Amino acid sequence: MISVRQAKTTDTDLVAHFVHALLEELSDGTPPESAVILRNTEKVLKEPSVIAMIAYAHEKPVGVMVLNECAAIYAGGRFAEISELYVLPEMRSQGVAPQLLKAAVAEAANRDWKRIEVGAPPQPAWKRTMNFYLRNGFTEVGPRLRKVI
């Protein structure tokens, strides 16, 4: 049985652990140091516009999703962006990520968010991730670019 709850301030270490694992996977084994991720997690989770959700399978934490509230004219107002979503490898294809998305949709309805957006990793290497989002009602709208300041 999969359950999802909003992270509390006492969950910072757990959220940081999952985000570190995600970044390790996305960076081919060279993520930022754990201490840096922990500091960033502590800072970001204090923001009222950020919500972390933790998934549990039989009371064991198995995944995390971090949502950020954004606003845009094109979106018709406020919306959410999924900045991180990670599920333990052994729990993938077990219904964990869809439950995290279901929790995000419920949170979006509660906050009157107009949509949920996510940046997918590069294709075709991460085709499975893209297919997951497409199967769960997302539509592809193009790549995202960034400029680090």
TrEMBL record:
Residues 2-149 form the N-acetyltransferase domain. PANTHER family: AMINOALKYLPHOSPHONATE N-ACETYLTRANSFERASE-RELATED (PTHR43877:SF2), AMINOALKYLPHOSPHONATE N-ACETYLTRANSFERASE-RELATED-RELATED (PTHR43877). It comes from the Bacteria. Pfam families: Acetyltransf_1. GO terms for cellular component: ribosome. The keyword Ligase does not apply. This is Ribosomal protein S18 acetylase RimI. Keywords: Acyltransferase, Ribonucleoprotein, Ribosomal protein, Transferase.
